[in-house]
Design goal:
About 35% of the residues lie in helices and about 15% in strands. By secondary structure, it is α/β, with parallel strands linked by helices. The strands form four sheets. It has a five-stranded parallel beta sheet, sandwiched between helices.
Amino acid sequence: MAALNVRESGLNPQIAAEKPPTRVVSLVPSLTQSLIDLECDDTLVGVTQYCPRPAGETQAENIGGTHAVDLDKIVTLQPDLILANQEENDRADIEALEEAGLDVWVSFPKSVQDAIETLWLIARVFRVVKEAAQKIVLIERSLEWVQRGASQIDARSVFVPIWQAEAPHPGIYWMTFNHDTYCDSVLTACGGCNVFKHRNRRYPLEAEFARDFPAEQAGERDTRYPRVGPEEVLETSPEIILLPSEPFAFSVEDQRRIADLLRASPAVKNDKIYRIDGRWLSWHGTTLSHALAGLSAYLE
């Protein structure tokens, strides 16, 4: 197999190979699901413990978690392509795999359009364009239909925490996301308006909550996932609150506690605080089709 040029900083790496990959390790659950849906899962020789499995028997080995991969095991599997993601996998692991002479495709979609482009790229790399075209085009048409419907109504203001923790002040707080993320793009496509769309993460933690606390320069640190407390959430007056099942699994008890803390918000007053499938917001790829239907129903 000819060498693959698959190092990607975001989208559309130039990939050239004499034949499609036949031994693939996926470090990304959403891409594993996409390979299954596009009927390329027979190439999988290694997947993470969080990845879905094909309906039938599979020989894919468990290579650990997305942030705790078994590098030696991956090398032993001798994959001709490794699928990774800039947000979900550790840079040190990716560099170690590359230093071992393995080809790694590092994806980083930040929008629904990026996700669709990635699906077309998978179809081209695995030489299944003809077979996959109908499924991908259906997702494209579904996106167009949902966006057209959303454009006919006023966007609903939405708060979506994706992690929960506590600090001395303000006590309980949540991590959310801003406009520069795939999560925001999916929410927007379905008719939601992220109340923290324009909020950047501040460093250190105290700078998030004490407005007179001087923030550090972020440098190369990620500012796309701000941390917010109850007071700041209430100021945005969200009409809907969505509690995803991952990466933090919000429980029924968490839902009750959040409803109490945010009881003055329109969302709680109108009983519009919902626990949802977290894959709708964070799994790019073919899962987008489920997100378009599921999220739209909650945002109507």
